[in-house]
Design goal:
Elements lengths: L23 H27 L4 H10 L17 H14 L1 H22 L5 H21 L3 E4 L16 E5 L2 E11 L7 E8 L12 E7 L5 E4 L13 E11 L9 H8 L8 H19 L16 H26 L7 H29 L10 H10 L8 H13 L8
Parallel strand pairs: 1-4, 2-4
Antiparallel strand pairs: 2-3, 3-7, 4-5, 6-7
Helix pairs in contact: 1-2, 1-3, 3-4, 3-7, 4-7, 7-8, 7-9, 7-10, 8-9, 9-10, 9-11
Bound molecules: flavin-adenine dinucleotide (FAD).
């Protein structure tokens, strides 16, 4: 977005706002994300128009060391926790939603293998196996700058967390044979490895079980692995989220990203692991709000001579409504990510759903209000607002925590304690 030179408003449009205590390291990372974000913002319209992947942004992040954000320090990464990840991701999201959303898939692959897995119960043998395999995945990210996609969605109830994954992994000598289909795989054609959630096919087992979920990284060049389908969606066009077909794809044992049974434990004990899509949309909310303030102040240079519109009471009321929505959203965002932990008490789990719902729904509401308030010129393709509006629409559709399923979970879990049922 073209604006006037630094005018003292900048602090108000950071993700945290002013006054939140951050470590020197967090401040450094957020400054870096803002710095990179300037180029991301400039390129965003082109990627959106072409529905093309933002390779240049990934080159920039690789050079700046950001691709290893959530790789633990002993493995050469930056060792960021969930809260720091959320702040960085939201800051990227302010500048380019598609980059932030795909960065989620990549960064959270290492977050799951690192910080999340460290807190899970494993036998000594499982821990040793995990150490051996994750060292390989981390080395690829740290030394080779490899990018990991994270693919769990299928056209079944599995992505909602209600059924076993239909994609299967059969144990064979030295590895696994994978078969199935994944939809909406962001980073299609851009990732070096595709972390796929699947179910271990156990000969003789009565029925597939969610406990047998496996998380396995397929190298992009693996025989039998193909990417199909077109990609021409409403929003988040730069994510390039196409369909993956797996036809007897052999992956060596070392491709395992978690030992058998551990993904299911993570999914049941670490609810915040499914909240990591939302920071992108927190960023979009801040961007839509910032645009509106600058627009009404007559500071959008792309529109030519300055026209201020801030003196109209209706604009002031709309701005106040957006501001209130933004502060509500930001408060829940900061609170929920700052308390993310394994086995959170019920109240925190419900707050995580409430935060996720609020961020996803309010991103679209704030963007909608921004367009209505700024008016006709603001929705021209030459300005970012219409893209923010389209991108913001996608958040509450994303499984496993769609807006509907957040309501579903909050309603049920608020009214029933564990094990309770009605006659
Ligand atoms: C831009 C974008 C990028 C994406 N990137 C990825 C990615 O990288 N990796 C990945 O794995 N996925 C990704 N997804 C997929 C996403 O998480 C969803 O899985 C996908 O949007 C599924 O949509 P659907 O309408 O086919 O879901 P459906 O399963 O058809 O569900 C439709 C709606 O019904 C409701 N619903 C579904 N199941 C239930 C149930 N059991 N009970 C009650 N209600 C239910 C939900 O609210 C849902 O919104 C991406 C999606 C988008 C839009």
């Amino acid at each position: 977005m073209a604006t006037t030179a630094d005018d003292g408003l900048a602090d108000r449009f950071t993700i945290t706002g002013t006054g939140l205590e951050l470590s020197a390291e967090q401040t450094g990372l957020l400054n870096l994300a803002e710095e990179l974000g300037v180029s991301f913002g400039r390129r965003a319209a082109r990627y959106d128009q072409e529905a093309g992947f933002p390779f240049e942004n990934y080159d920039d992040m690789r050079r700046a060391g950001l691709l290893k954000l959530c790789v633990p320090r002993p493995y050469g990464g930056l060792g960021s926790d969930l809260f720091t990840y959320a702040l960085v991701s939201a800051t990227l999201g302010k500048h380019c939603g598609a980059t932030a959303l795909t960065f989620n898939m990549h960064a959270c692959s290492s977050l799951w293998l690192g910080l999340l897995a460290d807190a899970l119960d494993m036998t000594a043998a499982q821990r040793a196996e995990h150490e051996k395999y994750r060292a390989l995945h981390f080395r690829r990210i740290v030394e080779e700058g490899a990018v990991y996609a994270q693919s769990f969605s299928e056209s079944t109830a599995s992505a909602a967390g209600k059924a076993p994954f239909g994609t299967t992994a059969t144990k064979v000598e030295g590895g696994w044979l994978l078969n199935g289909k994944k939809i909406f795989a962001s980073l299609s054609g851009a990732a070096d490895y595709y972390g796929v959630l699947c179910t271990e096919a156990r000969p003789g087992a009565e029925a597939p079980s969610m406990r047998d979920s496996l998380y396995i990284a397929i190298p992009k060049e693996a025989p039998g692995f193909t990417i199909v389908g077109d990609w021409d969606p409403l929003g988040m066009r730069g994510t390039v989220s196409r369909t993956l077909l797996l036809n007897d794809v052999f992956v060596a044992d070392s491709g395992q990203m978690m030992p058998r049974g551990i993904y299911h434990q993570a999914a049941t004990r670490w609810p915040h692991m499914f909240a990591t899509l939302s920071p992108t949309y927190m960023g979009i909310s801040v961007a839509a709000y910032e645009f509106t303030i600058r627009y009404l102040r007559g500071e959008i240079e792309d529109l030519g001579p300055t026209v201020k519109r801030r003196m109209y009471p209706t604009k002031q009321i709309a701005t106040a409504q957006m501001h209130i929505l933004l502060e509500q959203t930001r408060s829940l965002f900061l609170r929920s990510f700052s308390e993310a932990r394994i086995d959170p008490p019920k109240e925190m789990r419900l707050r995580a759903y409430a935060a996720h719902y609020t961020i996803m729904e309010n991103a679209n509401e704030i963007s909608r209000l921004a367009i209505r308030t700024c008016g006709g010129q603001s929705m021209l393709k030459s300005l970012p607002l219409e893209r923010l509006y389209r991108d913001s629409r996608c958040g509450s559709l994303m499984l496993p925590w769609t807006a509907e399923l957040c309501l579903d979970r909050i309603g049920r879990e608020a009214l029933y304690e564990s094990g309770e049922a009605d006659d």
